[in-house]
Automatic annotation (TrEMBL):
One of its GO terms (molecular function) is peptidyl-prolyl cis-trans isomerase activity. This is Peptidyl-prolyl cis-trans isomerase. SUPFAM superfamilies: FKBP-like, Triger factor/SurA peptide-binding domain-like. Keywords: Coiled coil, Isomerase, Rotamase. Residues 94-121 form a coiled coil. Its EC number is 5.2.1.8. Gene3D superfamilies: 3.10.50.40, Trigger factor, C-terminal domain. The lineage of its organism: Bacteria, Bacillati, Bacillota, Clostridia, Lachnospirales.
Length: 174
């Protein structure tokens, strides 16, 4: 875990939402762009560095797409992530159902098995619906319902374009 301050700029101007203080970065988490963490390896508290990054041409924020950014980083602290020891006492603080490590292991196993079962059922249902749709011919669809669905899709994608600060036609082409 690395605690950093950072400030990013492009074309000499600060990038909106491109700075932070006391940001706790788990190295390898991918919370920044791919490869960002690699630049921090080997640095210690107090080190400052400048990282250059070029945004992809198809980057979702069109104002930054294809631009070169400069990121000033100050490493404030480097810590090893400490995981608590798995004890009965710890289990009682994290579980409402278990009091011992053994009970907790059974609880987690049951939860994982249930989640896996739900996932498999969902995949089977998706597969079945896919086959139904592939082998179905719609002869008539209520016009008012069709119009409703069209508007819903349009609104959804228009919101997406706004969120990424893109023109609507450009957003649809990506």
């Amino acid at each position: 875990v690395v605690i950093i301050d950072y400030a990013a700029s492009a074309d000499g101007q600060p990038i909106q939402n491109g700075s932070g203080s006391d940001y706790e970065l788990t190295v390898g988490s991918g919370s920044f762009y791919e490869g960002f963490d690699d630049n921090l390896i080997g640095h210690n508290a107090g080190d400052t560095l400048n990282i250059e990054h070029t945004f992809a041409d198809d980057f979702n924020n069109k104002t930054l797409a294809g631009k070169k950014a400069s990121i000033d980083v100050t490493v404030k602290a480097v810590r090893e992530k400490e995981l608590p020891e798995l004890t009965d006492e710890f289990v009682r603080t994290i579980s409402q159902k278990s009091d011992t490590v053994e009970e907790y292991r059974k609880e987690v196993r049951k939860l994982l098995e249930e989640n896996n079962k739900e996932y498999i059922q969902s995949e089977l249902m998706d597969s079945a619906w896919k086959q139904v749709l592939e082998n179905t011919e719609v002869k008539k669809y209520p016009k008012d319902r069709l119009k409703e669905e069209e508007q819903s899709f349009y609104d959804h994608y228009e919101d997406g374009a706004d969120m990424y600060e893109m023109d609507f036609p450009e957003f649809l082409s990506k």
